[in-house]
Specification:
Layout lengths: L15 H4 L4 H14 L6 H13 L4 E5 L2 H11 L7 E5 L4 H9 L3 E5 L10 H6 L5 E4 L11 H11 L2 E5 L7 E2 L2 E2 L6 E5 L13 E5 L2 H10 L4 E3 L2 E2 L10 H31 L14 E2 L5 E4 L3 H10 L29 H5 L3 E4 L7 H12 L2
Parallel strand pairs: 2-3, 2-4, 4-5, 5-8
Antiparallel strand pairs: 1-9, 6-7, 6-12, 8-9, 10-11, 13-14
Helix pairs in contact: 2-9, 3-9, 4-5, 4-8, 9-12
The structure holds pyridoxal-5'-phosphate (PLP).
């Protein structure tokens, strides 16, 4: 192999085309129907999907929006908090969690992550509460739910709203209940690579609060009460008919895809049991949906090169903790005070998903066990 030549991966991190193979014809038919019905914005496909997704997540209401980032932002807008209110956000997340806060005129306060689940560390969060703290945003990282009893206790004690970022956790459960309605509302992303992915950008809000659902619908649709009557300035963020029709088909496959992820995760756990890396776990109160299978190793970069050389794609979620990003240097922190900062150098996401088979997991594990 010549220097600089790129090896075609034999085990891909993500392969949506392969994953969707068994339902491709059904999806194509659904797309044709949307075109036949000209149901591009609003309409029956959006209604069908939002009601099916509400049922799937055990929520009373579901509002379709443009993407997951908007879903978070629209919830925060709809809560009508005093400008400058503080929102507790985990340091280990995708930037969207924090971005939605700032974009809503609120203030980001980073909290550390738990060393076992990598979700928000409640002991750290409590230390960061001030008189201005209004919201806590648990992010169900990698598909593992946060410890929601701890979150809800903290929220009750300090009178905080709970807004769940469920972008990586479709179908995940805490003590047998689906995530997203433990607090006032939950935000979902249907970015193509998520466990339930559209063929473009899409997102949703779920809630059991009718008033908040109505408010979110208005915020997402120009503050509109009727066609040309606007009660306040909102924005334009809608789930479109085409994506909704695709999601309708894919939602029917989600349970089976999640079972596949759970099975592959079990394989990794068995095969890597004696390896030098720290393995992710499923807490006894959790149903993990394994959006990502994230291991930790102090030889991460060596391991990563080894895997790439063997044609195995992996990912890093995320290479820089949020407080260390250039975008957040305006927030003062005491040096690298977060364990999330250290983890950013050690985390490695192994390939997992319905596009893979047990043999693929065996191959990846073999390479890791050689380390
Ligand atoms: C993907 C993701 C988002 C944002 O969703 P988009 O649909 O890409 O806007 C928000 N939070 C987390 C944790 C995510 O993984």
């Amino acid at each position: 192999m010549r220097v600089g030549e790129v090896l075609t991966p034999t085990i891909k991190f993500l392969d949506i085309y392969r994953q969707d193979g068994p339902i491709r014809e059904e999806i194509n038919t659904a797309i044709s129907q949307v075109i036949g019905d000209s149901a591009y914005i609003g309409g029956q496909y959006v209604k069908q999907f939002t009601s099916a997704f509400a049922k799937f997540q055990q929520a009373d209401y579901c509002v379709g929006v443009g993407n997951g980032t908007d879903a978070l932002e629209i919830i925060l807008h709809a809560l009508e908090l005093p400008l400058g209110s503080e929102v507790l956000v985990p340091a280990n997340s995708f930037i969207a969690s924090a971005e939605a806060v700032t974009r809503s005129g609120l203030k980001v306060v980073f909290c550390d992550c738990d060393p076992v689940t990598y979700t928000i560390d409640i002991d750290d969060a409590v230390k960061r509460i001030t008189n201005n703290t209004a919201v806590i945003m648990p992010v169900h990282m990698y598909g593992h739910p946060c410890d929601m009893n701890a979150v809800l206790e903290l929220a009750a004690r300090y009178d905080l709203q709970v807004v769940e970022d469920c972008a990586q956790a479709h179908g995940a459960e805490y003590k047998g209940k689906k995530v997203g309605t433990f607090g006032i509302a939950g935000a979902f992303s249907f970015y193509p690579g998520k466990n339930l992915g559209a063929y473009g950008d899409a997102g949703a809000i779920i809630t059991n609060n009718e008033r908040l659902a109505d408010r979110c619908i208005m915020v997402a649709n120009h503050g509109r009460t009727e066609k040309y009557n606007h009660e306040f300035e909102g924005r334009n963020s809608r789930l479109d008919g085409m994506q909704a029709a695709i999601l309708n088909i894919k939602l029917k496959a989600l349970e089976q895809w999640t079972e596949c992820r759970r099975n592959l995760a079990r394989c990794y756990q068995e095969l890597l049991n004696d390896s030098t890396v720290s393995l992710p776990t499923e807490q006894k109160w959790a149903k993990h949906v394994w959006h990502l299978f994230v291991i930790r190793s102090n030889q991460r970069d060596r391991l990563r090169s080894l895997l790439i050389k063997e044609g195995i794609q992996c990912g890093i979620h995320y290479p820089v903790a949020l407080p260390d990003l250039p975008a957040y240097q305006y927030i003062e922190h005491k040096g690298r005070e977060f364990r999330a900062s250290k983890y950013a150098d050690e985390l490695l996401s192994l390939p997992i998903g319905p596009h893979l088979r047990v043999e693929d997991i065996e191959r990846v594990s073999e390479v890791i066990n050689e380390l």
